[in-house]
Design a protein that fits this description.
It contains one helix and 21 strands. By secondary structure, the protein is mostly beta strands. The strands form four sheets. Strands 1, 2, 6, 7, 9, 12, 14, 17, 20 and 21 form a ten-stranded antiparallel sheet that branches. The N and C termini lie close together (10 Å). The N terminus is likely disordered.
Length: 315
């Protein structure tokens, strides 16, 4: 049975949220390989790597390089190892150098999934978190975290998670969904993600965000590993915006959602009624949801710096 998508406005006008970005991290540019994240210092300060459990001698490692280039949401993973014109660096999880098999460090968002510990002493159990510099959220509230990412692995065995530090302790913020391969197999597809930080981030000068990776060394798990780019923190205030709502339309047909807009826009996320992010694929102005079930969904878009949320029913 074909699903029917019906659009509802969230208010009588165009309901939106003014999003004022106050912190960004794009990991700079440069075609490089093997630069560890612990040696990266950006405009906001230095990133750090923390062990969150056992790490073997050849454990997967965090890098900041263009070996996995930031290709943009909806695009397939690629890097300067394949095309020297690609210089947009990202934070990503890759392999260490393993001389026994002539494997160089950092092949982009690719990892050794294990299985060689007893036979060749190549042991890769991994528990490592990449941590941002301290983020000063003084004077900010209703803070949204947005970024592009790709993630593969093996369920929760080889897995990427999002963490939050309130100045006192780290806490798990979200076990991020695996991103689609689409036509990008065996590479990943860059996917947008947005989540609100806890209220404890409001007016807090000591916030950090982190990305954790685990690998259980069982030789099960597929690329990509875990890569992140274009991180932003924004203060969000809701209200009526100044955008002409009639210039933006969202409709559906054949199980797809279509966007028509006179404005440039960026798709941020699609969430269900519980606030869970739903996997989707975007090609131009077409949004395809993955494994959608009947219910209400919210499509979040950034239009000229203004966040707009559209309510869609699938039935």
């Amino acid at each position: 049975m074909k699903k029917i998508f019906t659009l509802f406005a969230l208010s009588c006008g165009a309901f939106a949220a003014q999003a004022q970005t106050f912190w960004t991290e794009d990991f700079s540019t440069g075609c490089s390989q093997g630069n560890t994240a612990s040696s990266y210092t950006g405009v906001n300060g230095a990133w750090a790597i923390t062990a969150t459990g056992t790490n073997d001698a050849n454990a997967n490692q965090w890098f900041v390089s263009a070996a996995e280039a930031g290709m943009g949401v909806g695009q397939c993973g690629d890097g300067c190892l394949n095309n020297t014109n690609l210089t947009n660096r990202t934070l990503h999880l890759g392999n260490t150098a393993i001389a026994l098999v002539n494997l160089p460090a950092d092949n982009g968002a690719s990892y050794v999934n294990g299985g060689f510990c007893q036979s060749f002493n190549i042991c890769v159990v991994t528990n490592r978190r990449a941590e941002s510099p301290t983020i000063n959220c003084t004077g900010k509230s209703n803070i949204a975290l947005s970024f592009a990412y790709m993630e593969g692995g093996d369920g929760t065995n080889d897995d990427g998670t999002l963490w939050y530090y309130d100045g006192n302790a780290w806490a798990l913020l979200m076990n991020l969904p695996k991103t689609p391969l689409g036509n990008c197999s065996p590479q990943g597809e860059w996917t947008a993600y947005t989540i609100n930080l806890p209220a404890s981030a409001n007016n807090n000068p000591n916030v950090k965000i982190g990305f954790n990776w685990v690998n259980n060394d069982d030789q099960t798990g597929t690329d990509p590993s875990f890569a992140i780019d274009d991180i932003t923190l924004s203060q969000v205030t809701t209200g009526m915006n100044q955008i002409d709502a009639s210039a933006i339309s969202v409709y559906s047909n054949d199980d797809n959602i279509y966007v028509r807009s006179s404005y440039a826009y960026r798709l941020l996320a699609v969430t269900d009624m519980l606030g869970n992010n739903v996997k989707f694929t975007q090609v131009d102005n077409t949004i395809s949801l993955h494994n959608a079930v009947n219910g209400i969904y919210f499509v979040q878009m950034d239009v000229n710096g203004t966040r707009i949320t559209k309510k869609v029913m699938i039935q």
